[in-house]
Amino acid sequence: MKTNGLMKSTAMLAALAGAAFAVPATVQAQNLVVWGSDLQADPLVNELWQEIKTRFEEANPGVTIEYMPPTGNISDGAVQAAIQSEAGPDVLLTNSGIGRVTIVANAKLVQPLTAQYEELGWKDKIYPWLYEQLSTQFNGEIYEVPDGVDAIAIWYHKDMFEENGWSLEGGWADFTATLDAIKAAGVEPIAVGIRNCCNGGHLIGNFLQAAAGPQMMGEVVAGEVPWTDPAVVAGAQNLVDSVKAGHINPQMTSLDQDAAIRLWANKRAAIFFGGPWFINNVRQLDYDLANLGYATIPSDLDDGSRPTGGVGWSWMVPVSSKQPELAMKWIDFMLSEEIMMLRAEHQTSSQLMARDLPDVEPVVPVMGEVFAAAAEGVGYNPSVYIPGSALDTYYQVIGGLVGGQVSPEDGLAQIEAKMGD
Amino acid sequence: MASKSAIPERVGEAAHAPPTAVRTEDDPTRDSYGTAFALLAPAIALYAVFSLLPIVATVGISFTNSGGFNTEAQFVGLDNYVRASEDPIVWQSLLRTFLWLFYHVVLAGGLGLVLALAVSSLARGKVFFRTTLFLPHLVSLAVVGVIWANIYDPFYGLLNTLLASLNLSHLAQGWLSDPFLVLFSVNVASSWQGFGLYMLLFIAGLQNVDPTLYDAAEVDGASAWQKLIHVTLPGLREVLTFVVSLAMINGLKGFATVFVMTNGGPFYASEIITTYIYRMAFQAQDHGLAAVLCIMMSVLAITITVTFNRWRARGAT
C-alpha cells in the first residue's frame, strides 16, 4: 500500500510538474500595444474597442491587448515621434493614403506588409480597386492595410434647410445661390477648420473636384496633370470667390477642425465638409443624429458631384514593433468578417469599411445616405494622395486662399513646385 | 634645513599661482586637480552625451540626405545649405523669428519690469501679488496655447465677446487669422506665460538698489520719473542685462504656442524658425535640411547673445 501510495504521489507530482512546465509552453503571456482609434475617449467608441480586445484575447489565449492613447497622427508628426522613441506601439491605426505613408515609408519607420497581403490573403479582404491602388504605389511594396474608406461631402442640418427652403441640388450657380441665401439669413454658410491641416483639405478637395471632375483630380494628385491646369485653377478660384462672397469667413483660418464642428453643431453654420467620421464628432456634442443630412457638392460636370475620399485610416506596423507577428494577427483579425460586421453595425459606425459588406444594416440612418452617395465610387481627397513633400505647402496654400494671402494661380503653382521634390 | 623651509614656501606659491604655473611631481595641487576632474567628470560626461554629441551629430546630419534615424544617409556636401538659402520660407521664418524675439523682450520683459516696480511699491500684499502674478509661468506653454486659442476664437472667444459687450465690436479682430496680427497675438500668449519669471528677477534686483539713493534723490527734489530713470534703472543694470539675455534666448526657443495656436499659418504668417525645423524634421522627415536650420538657429543665438553682451560691456565702460 505504502509503495502504491508513494508511486501515486510521485506520479501526481510528476504530472503536476509536467503540467506546470507544459502550460507556459503552449500559452505564453504576450502583450500587444495597439495605437487604436483616436476617438476611444468616447465611452461608446471605447465600448466597441473593448469588445474587440476581448474577442481577440479569447481567440489568442495568453495575449493581452494594451491600448495606447494616440497623441496624433502622421500629419502632425506624432506617429513619427512615437515610432522613433522606441516606446511606441506594436501596431497602429493612423491617417494614411500615399501622401502620408510616403513620409513614414521613406523614413523606414514602418514595415512592408506586401508578403502578408499574399500569405494571409489580405488582398482579397479589401476592395479590388483599393488593392490595385496600394500595390502600384511603392514599386509594388505595400505598407498599410486600409481600415476604412473616406467619403467626404457636405453635412447639413435637415431642419434648417427644410425651414428655409434651402437646397443642395442643381449646379454650381444653384449652390452659390443657396450659400447666398444662408448668408442672408445670418448664418455662416460654411464652417471649416483650416488651422490644423486636414479639414481645409476636405473643403478644397470638393471644390476642385466639382470644377475639374474626379478623373482629372486623379491625374493631378498622381502628378500627371499640373495643379496649374485651368480646370483646377477654376476650382480654386471658386473657393476664393466663395470667400469674397462671404460664404466662407476668412476667420475660419484660425479655427481647428473641432472648433469648426462646434460652430456647425451649434447651428451657427449651415454646412460642413467632412467624411462619415463627422457623425461621431457631432454625437459627442449631443447633436440629434436624425437631423444629420449628407449630400454631395453640386457641380456642373456629370461626375463632379460625388464624395471625395480614398484611404482614410490604415493599420501599419512600426519597425520598432516588439510583436510584429502578433501585430499581423491583429490586422488579420480586424479584417475578419466577424470584426468588420461588428464595427459596421455598431452605433458608432462612421466609415465605409475596406471591403463591400452588402448585408450591413447601419444603425445610424444617415450612413445609408453615405453608402448610396459612394455607390459609384469616391473621388480623390488630395490630402491622401499627394506626396508628403507637397502636403505642408498644400495645407498652407489652402489657408492662404481663404485668408486672401495668395492667388489661386500662385498658390497652385507652389503646390506643383513641391510635387516633384 | 634649507630644503625643509623651502617646502611650505613652494606650497604657498603654488596655491596662489595661476594654473599655467610649472608644477613638479611632488606638487600637492596635482591632487586637487585630480579631485576636481573626478568631481566634474559626471557633469562633463552628461554634457558631452546630451549636448556636445548631439551638436556634432547635427553638424554631421546637415551634410547628408538623412530621411530619418532608420535610413541610410548619403553625404551630399553643401546641398542642404544651398537648399536652405534658396528656400523663401526659411528667410521669411527667420525674419519672423527676429520679430518674435523683439515682441517677447518688449512684452514679457517690459511687463515683468512694470509689474516688478508696481509690486515693489506696494505697502501691503506684496507676497500675494508676487505669487499670483507668477502663477501663469507654472502653466505649460502647450496649455497656454490652448487657453489663448480659445480666448482669441473669432466666434466664441472671450476677447471678441468682451469687446462686443462693451460696445467695442469695431475693435474685434481675427486675432489669429489676420496675417499682420497673428504673430503678435500668439506672442502675447507666450509673453503672458513668461513675464512672471522676469518680474521675480526684477523684484530681486530692486531689493538690491541702495535705498539711500532714493533719499538723496528726494532731497534733490527728483520726480518719480527721474528717480526711475536715474536711480532705479541704473541700479537694475545687471538684472536688466540678465533678463534681456534670458528673454532673447527664451524668445528664440518659442515654439509651443505657435505650433498649438496657428500651426505656422495662415499661409506661413506665423511660421518661425523653430516651427519650420519641427515641420521639416518630424513631419517631412527631411533631417538634412532641419539640421541646417538648427545650425542657423544656434549661430543666431550665439551672435545675438555675444553682440548684446559686448554692447552692454561697452556701455558699462
TrEMBL record, chain A:
Coiled coil: none annotated. The keyword Transmembrane does not apply. The keyword Transit peptide does not apply. Pfam families: SBP_bac_1. SUPFAM superfamilies: Periplasmic binding protein-like II. Keywords: Periplasm, Signal. It is found in: Periplasm. Its main location: periplasm. InterPro entries: Bact_solute-bd_prot1, SBP. Residues 1-29 form the signal peptide. Belongs to the bacterial solute-binding protein 1 family. This is ABC transporter substrate-binding protein. It comes from Devosia nitrariae. The lineage of its organism: Bacteria, Pseudomonadati, Pseudomonadota, Alphaproteobacteria, Hyphomicrobiales.
Automatic annotation (TrEMBL), chain B:
It comes from the Bacteria. It is a multi-pass membrane protein. It is found in: Cell membrane. The chain crosses the membrane at residues 37-63, 98-120, 127-149, 180-204, 288-308. Residues 94-308 form the ABC transmembrane type-1 domain. Residues 1-29 are annotated as: Disordered. Keywords: Cell membrane, Membrane, Transmembrane, Transmembrane helix, Transport. PANTHER family: ABC TRANSPORTER PERMEASE PROTEIN (PTHR30193), INNER MEMBRANE ABC TRANSPORTER PERMEASE PROTEIN YCJO (PTHR30193:SF37). Belongs to the binding-protein-dependent transport system permease family. This is ABC transporter permease.
